[in-house]
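Category: protein sequence paired with discrete backbone structure
Discipline: computational structural biology
Format: plain text, a pair of labelled lines
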Amino acid sequence: MFNSELFYKFHKSLLSAEDNKEAAFHESDCIDMIKRKHTNKENNLVPVLNIQEFRKGQDAGGDTLLFNYLHGEKHIEKPHKHDFFVIILFEKAKGIHTIDSVDYRIGNRQIHILFPGQVHKWDIEPKSSGYQLMMEASFLEQFAPYFRFSFTNYQNHPVIALSLHSFRLLFHEFDAIRAELKNPVPLMQLITARSAVIAAIVSREAENTFTEFKVYQSNPRLAKFNLLIDEHFKEQKFVAFYADKLHISANYLNILCKRNLKISATQLIQQRVCLEAKRLLQTTGASIKEVAFDLGFADHAYFSNFFKHQTGLSPTAFREQL
């Protein structure tokens, strides 16, 4: 049975008298760092923050991960990205979390996932509360297989509503990780195991929430196709290449995609290319020509036409709106 008293004690332990004098160092307190990084002559550059910049005032932490309690109103005005993994469990919250240029409404009992390189900012309203784990990429690798789907699937659906049962399970794991990090010598094998449990629960909730996840779970060939796209989309944009890897015809692969995902195989590849193009345009000072070349386009004019067809904006207009 869910113990509301446990929540209260947990909150109280996190918000000590000293903490109340000055709120813990959260992402919104990184604004000064972000402003310093934005003095770069390329104003469109999105700063990259590393986990060391969040250590001050954290509730608990180790060499490769940190636990942070989110309480009250928080604002990140300038978008930024991390070189580490972040997973946030919101208990009661309202606001807007912008991830890779998409606005997601923050609500009660949600999990938010940010993989390294994703661009985000947020406006969290007063009286909100949540729990945040920040993990170095090297630590993520240890339990990554328990995310049962391609990382791109989670990046496309970074906000997942939770059932009350799953929220309670996740809260228990978050709390246990925090408690273990408080030990003078944390047992990292235990933390890794609990992180794997978190990944497994999140994957189950994603599968229950989004049709896309159900499709990949029930169709191993499409799941493999999705993984191959992640691996080769910069160099290979034709369906025939992926069909050959899957030992099926291009026509059959296209039939599978249309039947199960309601889009063609080509469109699935193009969506991945477009997502990466948006990130490069947001987070680097590379010219349009350089972005096109990085994505495997020999002709930057063709890339511009491709991008406008996908988004309705030219690459230059997309940058200017940021």
User: Anything to note?
Assistant: The first helix runs from residue 4 to 14. The domain at 219-320 is CATH 1.10.10.60 (Arc Repressor Mutant, subunit A).
